[in-house]
Fold this sequence. Notes:
Shape: globular
Helix content: 55-70%
Largest sheet: none
CATH architecture: Up-down Bundle
Bound molecules: protoporphyrin IX containing FE
CATH topology: Methane Monooxygenase Hydroxylase, Chain G, domain 1
Amino acid sequence: xxxxxxxxxxxxxxxxxxxxxxxxxxxxxxxxxxxxxxxxxxxxxxxxxxxxxxxxxxxxxxxxxxxxxxxxxxxxxxxxxxxxxxxxxxxxxxxxxxxxxxxxxxxxxxxxxxxxxxxxxxxxxxxxxxxxxxxxxxxxxxxxxxxxxxxxxxxxxxxxxxxxxxxxxxxxxxxxxxxxxxxxxxxxxxxxxxxxxxxxxxxxxxxxxxxxxxxxxxxxxxxxxxxxxxxxxxxxxxxxxxxxxxxxxxxxxxxxxxxxxxxxxxxxxxxxxxxxxxxxxx
Length: 282
Ligand code: HEM
């Protein structure tokens, strides 16, 4: 469109607001100045911008996941399972987006990354506190992480509260008990600061749900939402591990771990073990 035509079209479109002297703009509402000024590369290398943006995008999606999972926990505690389904389904969609950032990051080659990697010092995604908050909310409790954040009192407190709170899986198991399915007392009264490990009564309860789908429809739907989330979490972990191998091979991580060997090991961790075990026995 020619410039005069464009101007003409805008002038004729009387509904378009252009006077914002007294009104809030799009960028003010979204705090875009702060958001878009958050990239502070430590090198002159062209590709560091991509590296930072991919981390930022990932952290934003994690923020939304936390928001939704915490709300879903409250819904389940309030015996409103259908309300939780909407939120958990959204979590899966966000995880799918989160997984796709690896496609963008995989365009970073080893030769490019090596140009600025040493600038990162010991900073690593390993220290992503939102990732730990998500893991806590899903039930994987690793206490060592709070040590990293000792210097930040407010954040340490937030991590500690999340560490001591029941997880999504804890409240799902409580929902099984509320539906009259027998669950061991030591599971119902367990120390929620510990990672849940597989329990026979929980497995049998889920088995009953999966064998009597019509009778336990809501619990069945809840179970499948949880499996979606765990499945996507594992897909994210796998893509992370493979992308890291593609970019740094088997070098040590900047966070101090063995690198790919560590990332392979975390693939063995389950949030909702019984929901996977029952599939063999059903
Ligand atoms: C070139 C890109 C990347 C490389 C080479 C890389 C490498 C690594 C390595 C080696 C670890 C193990 C801990 C360590 O020793 O550092 C790790 C952990 C981690 N990284 Fe990345 N990473 C990259 C990108 C990302 C991105 C984009 C995110 C998104 C936020 C991310 C999030 C994480 C998280 C959450 C962990 C902890 C995993 C766990 O403990 O289960 N990484 N990364």
